Structure formats: structure tokens, C-alpha cells
Amino acid sequence: MIPGFGRFIFRVVLVSLMAAAPMRVGAETPGSGPIRVGLLPTIATLSLLNLYDPLRQHLQQALGRPVELYTAASFQAYLDDVQAEEFDVLVAAPHFGVLAYDRGYVPLYHYDQELTPLIVVPKGSDLREAAQLRGRRILTADRLAALSVVAETWLWVDYHLRAGTDYDLREVSSHATAIRAVAIGDADAAISSPSVLQQISGDMRDRVVSFPSRLRMPHQFILAHARLGNETVQVIRDALGRLGDTERGKAFFKAGGFKGLVPVEVDDIERARPYAEMIRHKSRSGN
Predict the structure, then answer these.
(1) pTM of the full predicted structure?
(2) Domain stop point among 212, 242, 259
(3) DSSP assignment string, 30-85
């Protein structure tokens, strides 16, 4: 069950919406229960839930039923929930989104930008290109994270640098934690992204610089499970399509460092699929 150890939930049910739904007294009627949104644990839990609360409120208003935000203690725990189809709506890394698509989720939108891994280093560091990372200590939120999968692939393909052999790759609790460690000198570099840099404090951001990966893929996917039914999925699709036209949505995109939402295309899925297959292979091999 989702509300177990290591999971976190944030729930705010507006009084006005409760008053507008008297049929929810007693047994729930079909289609009246909460919509559960699963968020990828990219930053600290409370920061993540606060960031996505405007989106939650927007969907709740459009659907006329409660919307709840969930996340997990790790990328593996989140992936386990995705594969168990625990969530009604996902905000997922693109390679996780492909795995969800294969399990019956309907792709709706992705953020209107590419997921570009950055190598973040301390300001004043002599590190300015990937070839200099040999022998260095690098932090990542999780090796299952799209940023890490793409960055590791890039370092191997372009520079023949393999994690654990040519550089020391360590996992920490979040992308933001990795950047903070770099900012205070506890690591040589971190794998992150432009949107994560936008979401951390200005003080931390001012203490680091970055350079981008050559490889990239579409940004996080938003998907809805087909079990919600065509009508509900369409309401969610329409609501997300209008999000950028609202003050709430504009504030959300600015806070998250996002440019907006665009529909997921077949090409987006195919670009992310090779990385999804890497995850499948790691799961089968137990690595």
C-alpha cells in the first residue's frame, strides 16, 4: 500500500469542493474517490509537495473531486509503485514513463524542454569538461534517475569513463542534496539539471557552475492510467492543457523552472525507450 513506511502524502481537500459534492457522504460512488498523483522524488519531500500543490489544486478544481499528491523515499520505491500501477496520475522520468506506458498509462504531456544532464561543479573549480572527471568523486540522486542514466551513458560513449572504475559515483538523497554537497566542497561534481538548479536556493546556486551533457531526452512525462476511463482522462488532459493560462499555473512553471507543457509524441516515447530498456535489464540482472 502507498501510505506505508517511507512514503509521504500531502492532502488538502478544499471545503468548497467538499460542500459541492454531498453525494460523497457515506459510501463512495464510482468515480468520486481521490485521484492519486505520484511525483518523482527529485527534491526534498516538502519542497516537492509544495511545488506541485498549484497543479494539484488546478486538477482538483477541474475534476470536482479530491486530488492527492504522493512521493516515495527513493527512485526504486517510486519505480516499484509505478510498476505496481499504484498511482492514477504520474509525473515520471521519461524512461519510467515508457515503462508506465507499457503497463497501460496514457501519455498526456511532458515539460516543454529537454532533460539535459548537467555536471555541476564548485565555482572556481578547475573542472570544465567531462574528460577531467576521471578519478573524481561525483554525486547523483539515484542511478535509476534519468539524469544519471543519460549522464553515465554520455561519459562512457564519449569519454570511455565508467562509473565505479574511472570515477567514484555516489548516491545521495536527492538532486538538490548533491548540489549542496558540491557547493560546500564535499564532492568534486554532481549530476543535475537546469530545472533542479532553478528549484534550489539562490545562495546554493551562486556557489556552483555547470556544463551540459551532449546526450539528452524529453523532460518528465505526465501520464494518466487508462482505468480512470476515457472521460476522466480527457478532463485531466484538458485541464493540463489550460494550466499555463492560469495565474496558478504560471507560478508553478516559474517555481519549477519549467517552460510549460506540450503533448507527448510517439517520437518522445521512442527516444526514451532505450533508457527504459536499460532499467529493465538492470532489474532482471539484479544490478
Answers:
(1) 0.79
(2) 212
(3) TT-SPEEEEE---S-HHHHHHHHHHHHHHHHHHHTS-EEEEEESSHHHHHHHHHTT
